[in-house]
Amino acid sequence: MSKAESKAFIYGHHAAVEALKQKANINKVWLQQGLAPKMEGEVSRLAKQQGLVVQQAPKARLDELADGGHHQGIVLSVAAYTYASLDDLFDRAEQSGAAPFFLILDGIEDPHNLGSILRTADAAGVHGVIIPKRRAVQLTATVAKTSTGAIEHVPVCRVTNLVQTVKTLKERGVWVFGTDVQGADYRTWDARGASALVIGNEGKGMAPLLKKQVDQMLTIPMVGHVQSLNASVAASLLIYQGFSSRQPL
């Protein structure tokens, strides 16, 4: 695996507790002075099990560490996030005993969207998420908090060129499905084989060159006045259609 480029912080109760339980690469635990005893006790117990330093600090210090984010009195200083390789994603699928089920995010820019998508991906058994190195949000503290711990369970592969990556996936037997306003009704999608789903940018959708590489386009039919959905909402609908076809009742 390759290491991310910057120091990171995880903040918020659920995200911090999940990171501690998963024994993420944590350097230090910061707790706000006067934190509720129950919350402080839970975090301190988990930190002690790993021999981590717990530092009491005023709220202003935690506000600074979390860059103004809603930290709920808990901030973890962690080593830079690690990114998986494409082979790691295939290995994870093989270990699960199921055909690969990947998610490709083409230029998602909002960290809250990425965090929410990771949360859904974890719930639906997605084996890994692929993101571009440029012009897209990377793994950050906001992503970690929004994912409520899913960032510790879903490997994220960061690649230089999505078009080339899609070609590689297809060479390895993966069917690639895109999303657009024109395409087959997503409710007909059968993802039982090795499949990868592409979710486009919040405003621009999928890049034209990437569209040319997919095997089939899927669309979410809408009958209301608003003819678009938030990227994380659209991703959730599509991911769960894939899940439903792979795990029928």
Notes on the protein architecture:
Residues 1-6 have low confidence and may be disordered. The strands form three sheets. Strands 9-8-7-11-10-12 form a six-stranded parallel β-sheet, sandwiched between helices. Strands 2-5-3-4 form a four-stranded mixed β-sheet. It has a two-stranded antiparallel ribbon with strand order 1-6. It is of the alpha/beta class and 249 residues long. 36% of the residues lie in helices and 24% in strands. The chain is built from nine helices and twelve strands.
Gyration radius (Cα, Å) is 19 Å
Order of helices and strands: EEHEHEHEEHEHEHEHEEHEH
Major beta sheet summary: 6 strands, parallel
Tell me the β content.
Answer: 15-25%
Q: From the helix content, strand content and strand pairing, which structural class follows?
A: alpha/beta
- The helicity comes to 25-40%
Annotation field: number of helices:
9
The largest beta-sheet arranges its strands as: 9-8-7-11-10-12
The count of strands amounts to 12
Report the principal-axis shape: elongated
State the distance separating the first and last CA atoms: 36 Å
The chain-level mean pLDDT equals 90
Low-confidence stretches: 1-6
